[in-house]
Amino acid sequence: MDKQQVLRELLRKAHVAEAAMAKVLVGQQLVLRNRPDAAFFAEQEQDALHTVQQLMPRYRVRPSALLSLLQGAGMAAGAAAALAPPAARNAVLGALQESLTGLYNDQLRAMREAGLSDEESLTGLYNDQLRAMREAGLSDEAADVRAVMIKLRNMERADEGCPAPPDIVSLTQAQSLADVGLGGVLGAVVKAVADAAVAASGRV
Record's Pfam families (predicted)? Predict the structure, then answer.
């Protein structure tokens, strides 16, 4: 796979992930109308989605064929999570946070392996700083994509009380459901489904 193909697949995945997450938070906000935190996270996610959308024409990236399906699923999941008990809602949001953080770590690793990355030099660069680098002829290949990936990886999308799901080792070593709890099982399932959906979206 050449560098342009790598970038297109990574951006397609990022786009569908942000679009689906935006719908999750919109669905949640529709139920939790008076929660300022729900409004904050929904607005922040829309900004993140817009950032990815701006990059797509530059690299000639088409949206995933799964985009509409995953947006609908995200909206339903967000509304269902908001209607659920707080522990279940937090498990879902924590799992999605973990899934997206893992996605962008994988994206940055893929860029390094494709010869498209110097992450340390770009940490903290965004918008005006990155534009100034380009105008001065100092930006390197795909610098804008890496800067966005770093920003999205570091973005907080849920309250601190939302737990990360148990990893596969914890699940396999658990002697009973009580060892990980219903929230842990729910979180692990949500993360697995989200990971698989985003992975598939990069190919179609």
Answer: COQ7
Backbone φ/ψ region at 60: left (φ over 0), alpha (ψ -120 to 50), beta: left
CA–CA separation, 26 and 71 (whole Å): 10
pTM of the model: 0.82
**Residue 164: domain span:** 3-201
How many domains does the chain fold into?
1
Q: What pLDDT does residue 77 have?
A: 93
pLDDT value for 122: 38
pLDDT at 141 over 70: no
- Give the burial string for 33-65 (b: 16+ CB within 10 Å, else e): eeeeebeebbeebeebbebbbebbeeeebeebe
- CA gap 94, 161 in Å, rounded: 8
Task: Give the tokens for residue 94.
Answer: 């924590």
